[in-house]
Amino acid sequence: MGYLSGEFMRTMSVLIILGLVVAAVVVWAVGLYNQLVKKKNHVEDGWSGIDVQLKRRYDLIPNLVKVVQQYAQHEEQTLKKVIQLRNQAKQADNPSQQIQQEQKLSQALSGLMVQVEAYPDLKANTNFLDLQQQLQQIETDIQYARRYYNGAVREYNTLVQSFPSNIIAQKYDFREAEYFEIEDPVHAENPDIAFD
């Protein structure tokens, strides 16, 4: 009887230790999963901040184009291109597609502002100056939102790629997020839209 009792105690001890190890692994996996969810939510929050600023810019562009049209009839093709790119960016289905469209739109806006230099009356128009100032502020806000978003993407991607969290990421289909980068180094800075 004493032998059975000792064997039973050893078996119970092994089972308890095994149970504790399994519980620790489960707690660890749940913790990593929750951390991935948290970082993914930061990425989505960062993108929503960019989205708000982009919508502000989308709303401003038609007014800017109207004012420029009054003074710069020769720039009709450029104005149509800006509106077309604005509409394409606004209708993008996902962040990756929107990032590509935003790069094109930023380049077109920069080109438009360079062409406006040839119209001194337009540069003196108070409506245009107000719109220009608003656009400058929006571009600055987009830059700040982009920095926050890219920081959140960096932290999330690091977690998705790092061992051992990459095991949980693969199992539950956490995919790397895409950075919001400006490809052309000339356009890495805000468009120069000051005329002073």
Describe the structure.
Helix 1 runs antiparallel to helix 2 and helix 1 (2-71) packs antiparallel against helix 5. The protein contains six helices and no strands. The radius of gyration is 27 Å and the shape is rod-shaped. The chain has helices at residues 2-71, 76-90, 95-116, 120-124, 126-161, 165-171. The chain is an all-alpha fold and 196 residues long.
What keywords describe this structure?
rod-shaped, membrane, de novo design (two linked rop proteins), transmembrane helix, Membrane protein, 196 residues, mainly alpha, 79% helix, LemA-like_dom_sf, MamQ_LemA
Instruction: Give the number of domains.
Output: 1
Number of helices: 6
Q: What's the helical proportion of residues? A: over 70%
Q: In the CATH hierarchy, what is the class?
A: Mainly Alpha
User: How many runs of DSSP E, i.e. beta strands?
Assistant: 0
User: Spans with pLDDT under 50 lasting ≥5 residues?
Assistant: none
The CATH homologous superfamily name equals LemA-like domain
CATH topology type:
de novo design (two linked rop proteins)
Family: Belongs to the LemA family.
Protein name: Membrane protein
Main location: membrane
Keywords: Membrane, Transmembrane, Transmembrane helix
